[in-house]
Each structure stands twice: as C-alpha cells, then as structure tokens.
Write a structure and sequence with these properties.
Elements lengths: L10 H9 L30 E6 L2 E4 L3 E7 L7 E10 L7 E10 L6 E4 L14 E8 L2 E4 L3 E2 L2 E2 L1 E9 L3 E12 L11 E11 L2
Antiparallel strand pairs: 1-2, 1-13, 3-4, 4-5, 5-7, 6-11, 7-8, 8-12, 9-10, 11-12, 12-13
Length: about 200
Amino acid sequence: MQRRKRSALAPMLVVLLGAGCGGGDDNPGTNTGTPTGPSANCAVTPPTGTMTAQLNGAAFTANFSTQATIQNATALGPNIVQISGVGCVDGTATRVQQVLITVGRLTPITPGTYALDAAAQSQPPGSGYSGIGTYVSAPSLWYTNLNSAAGAGSGTVTFTTITATRLAGTFSLVLAAAPGNGTGFTNRVTVSNGAFDIPAR
C-alpha cells in the first residue's frame, strides 16, 4: 500500500482491506475493545511519513502505511484535508488497525485546531464544516462524531503544517463504537498523544 492522494471515501478502502485480512478486535473474547500496539516492522517498504499515538494506552505506530490528502481549492471548495495511518497488530499485514482523520469545509483549511465531535458538524452554519476521526480494527469501526451506550465520541486535530507537500500536527480522540459492531466491541476507544508528519500529494 503506497502513499497517494485519496478522497473522503478512503475509510472504505481500509475497511475492505482489513476485512480480507482477518481483523477483529485486538483482544478477542473481551469486552474492552482495547487494541494492542503493533511491532516495529511489517511493511516491505517502510512508510515515508510518521504517525504515532497511544490506543487505549498501548503504543500505536503506522508502520504499514501513512497517507495524506490536501484538497484545498478556493472559497466554496470543497476543501478537504485527510490523514491516515495503518499499523500491523502482529508484526505482519495479516491484521491491521487504522487511524483516519478527515476535515472539510467550504473555505481552505489552514493551520489550527479543529473539533471532531458531533456538535461541531456544520458549524458555524453555512461553513460546510465536517470533522471526523475514525478508528478501524476490521470489521469493527469507531467514530468521534457518534454517541453510543458507552458514551459520546469527541476529539480534536491540530494542523501545525499544511503545505502542498506536507501535513503535520497532533490529535486526540475518544471514539464511540458504530452500531453494527458485534458484542465485545462496543466500548469507546481512546487515542491520546497522537502526532503525525506525512508527505502529501
């Protein structure tokens, strides 16, 4: 999987990849939804960019792929900035987990902090704003803009660098389980100390 420019439909690509590679929660048989950190080497060619975080307290490194999209146009866009990091759970590409963050609005996206919770969507009115954080451990999904029985999702991403060739910044997420997740995959996932520096195309 190589870096390339992707559309806002990118989550489906990794969902399909993970579904074909085993997937499932990283602690099967429990009701915690707690992922474990992947080991250091799983990609034949290491990603050019970096993404690291703590997933429910366990180390996460995007050692399989990193990808970034910058689609900044003009007023009345659409303008989309997206980052993705995929890491291996067991040291191979058999099982993967993904952190994906997408921000869009009608005006160009500039450095700053963007909210990713449900209340932030379409705010301010007329902005066309959408900010969503996603965690994938296929076939299960978690989102920052959902509410679930375990509690609401939330989160922010801070872009410190947005250029035609680079995205860098930090993030923190609390993700609510998607309604279709199976038993044992309904607790929230917390992503802390997130950082990324990814070449963009």
